[in-house]
Amino acid sequence: MALGEGRPTKRRPGSAVGGLPVADSRPVFDGDAVVGVRCTVCRYPVAQNGIPWCPSCYGTVEPARFATTGAAWTSTVVGIPVGERRPPFGLAYLDLDDGPRVLVHLVEPAILRTGERLRITGTDAGDLVAEVTA
Amino acid sequence: MNPMLWGVGTSDYGLQPEKRVEQLCWTAIAEAVADAGITPADIDAIIVGSVFGPPGVATRVQRGIGLPGVPMWTVENACASGTSAYHEAVEAVRSGRFGCVLVLGVDQMSTLFSGAIVPEATDPEGASSLPLPGLYALGAQRYVQEFGVTPEQLAAVAVKNKRNGLDNPRAQLRKAAPTIEEVLSSRMIAEPLTFLQCCPTSDGAGAVIVGGERGREGDLRIEASAMVSGALWDHRSDDVWGYASVARAAEQAYAQAERTPSEIDVMEVHDAFTIGEIVTLEALGVAPRGKGAELAPSGHTARDGVQPVNPSGGLLSRGHPLGGTGTAQIAEIAWQLRGRAGARQVARHRVGMVETMGGGAAGMDGNACVVTILSRP
Ligand SMILES: [Zn+2]
User: Fold this and answer.
1) pLDDT confidence of A2, banded at 50, 70, 90?
2) How close is the Cα of A61 to the center of ligand 1, in Å?
3) Which of A3, B153, B198, B270 is the most buried (most CB within 10 A)?
4) What residue range is the signal peptide (chain B) (predicted)?
5) Average pLDDT of the residues in B277-305
């Protein structure tokens, strides 16, 4: 059996691929900003909501809005189907300016230079989508 | 009580949907019990490592081997489930809680799923369709740019391990080993990782018997066993995913054993993808950061090299039955240290190491990592 054909998955595939719905844990983009929390003590940024304290120093966290721009940490182009995604599709870790590292899909699948500037343009089926800025 | 490895056993590895998952386990357990020279009644406790079970598999295994009532539990730590179960057995014997523990690692992947990879939807990155080869590819691509790692260096790991696996009668892949060119021209899974740089998922089980010192020929000293869970992996992390968790476990293991990386004669490490072996060997201190990709091309980690790595063929050749992988690695090191690895036998074999790293949860540098060091007394 080839990779991507008849391959194992995990127990909860989610409703997008025929499983039961699960609560969405992905970073939230509200049109202007990535919404998460920031520590009031050490300023640690997290693109998750609902956490009880700062995972880095245990300080109190408060709601925060993060920039949509940042620098690519690394990237890849996936050549196999994954869930509803059809290849090729591009993924990158994006270090948001003064914000957390988030996984984004790329508008144009490509290998990026480390540090290349990206901007989140929106979401696609709930996934963050980013493009290279000039 | 100083913990010792008394015996090991495994099933074959490969797609075996026609077999009961319990049958894979019974095969491994029977071999391990005979290897340890014990009777089933000597077993005080059972610890099982498995990711996908199925739920209750441990009890169905227990029924078949007639060990009612002994303490028994199941551990899930992703790909490190089998070695996490082993680590608990080692600690239990060390502390005197049990005198003899049966460790079982098992997964039967072929009966679970079909169709394209669908990552765990409750995970933020899984929900965004990041497959595990994609996660490793993101690390590999970072290495390409940061350290100038070449496609040929990546492919050399696959060639080495798949060649080693030709001599492993239990490995999943036993056909001719590919060339560098064949590895690189195989289908692109996630740049820069091609198909032949990814391990096949597999069905298989392994059993390990851990007990105290008893002076029996063939028993191996467990000099160290360290288990760590994941730590935050975020915008502050300059290391690729996975590196830091392996490094933390390795540091503890070397300290326990009072050894340095150069003292390890032979090792089995978690080569789920070629880049995995490279990053892991750096985290284990076998090569400096950024230099791990030179180890396979230089011959350092070849079976006849200075420090053979994955003489069994590794996950890339043996296959990856998640919970069954750690126990497979321990079995190979046991056979190597006793000088009983047949055509796979390495020349220097007094001190061996096993490393297993499991991951898949976003924002952490691993789910868990286990590093153990064993030696011939
Ligand atoms: Zn904080």
Assistant:
1) very low
2) 8
3) B270
4) none
5) 98
Q: Which residues of B touch A83 (CB under 8 A)?
A: 116-119, 129
Does residue B95 sit at the A interface (CB-CB below 8 Å)? no
Please name the helix (run of DSSP H) or strand (run of DSSP E) that holds residue A76, with its range, or none. strand A69-78
In-domain check, residue A16: no
ipTM: 0.95
Q: For residue A15, what pLDDT is reported?
A: 80
Please give the pLDDT value at position B175. 85
Cβ distance of A8 and B113 shorter than 8 Å? yes
Angle at B376 between CA B174 and CA B346, to 5 degrees: 35
Query: A7 falls in which pLDDT band (50, 70, 90)?
Result: very low
Is there a domain that residue B143 lies in? no
Is A32 within a domain? yes
- Using alpha carbons, list the distances in angstroms from residue A65 to A29, A37, A38, B241, B272: 9, 8, 9, 26, 37
Q: How far apart are CA B239 and CA B247, in angstroms?
A: 11
pLDDT band at A70 (very low <50, low <70, confident <90, very high): very high
Q: Is B146 a domain residue?
A: no
Please tell me the pTM assigned to this model: 0.96
| Domain boundaries, position A51 | 25-132
* pLDDT tens digit sequence for B70-90: 999 999 999 999 999 999 999
* Residue-number span of the structural domain to which B225 is assigned: 4-113+199-369
**Which backbone phi and psi does A129 adopt, to 5 degrees?**
-125, 135
User: Does any domain span residue A98?
Assistant: yes
Q: Give the ranges where B192-283 is alpha helix by DSSP (H).
A: 243-257, 274-283
Residue numbers of B between 185 and 224 with CB closer than 8 Å to A: 187-191, 195, 198, 201
In a domain, B176, yes or no: no
Q: Is residue B209 part of a domain?
A: yes
Quick check: B213 and B27 in contact, CB under 8 A?
no
Cα gap B325→B315, rounded to integer Å: 8
pLDDT single digits (tens) A8-25: 444 677 887 777 888 999
User: Quick check: B117 and A80 CB within 8 A?
Assistant: yes
Number of domains in chain A: 1
Instruction: Clarify whether B235 is annotated catalytic.
Output: no
Cα A103 to its chain centre, rounded Å, is 3
Cis previous bond, B169, omega within 30: no
The pair phi, psi for residue A60, each rounded to 5°, is: -75, 140
Residue B147 has pLDDT above 90, yes or no: yes
Neighbouring-strand partners of residue B129: none
What per-residue confidence (pLDDT) applies to A10?
A: 46
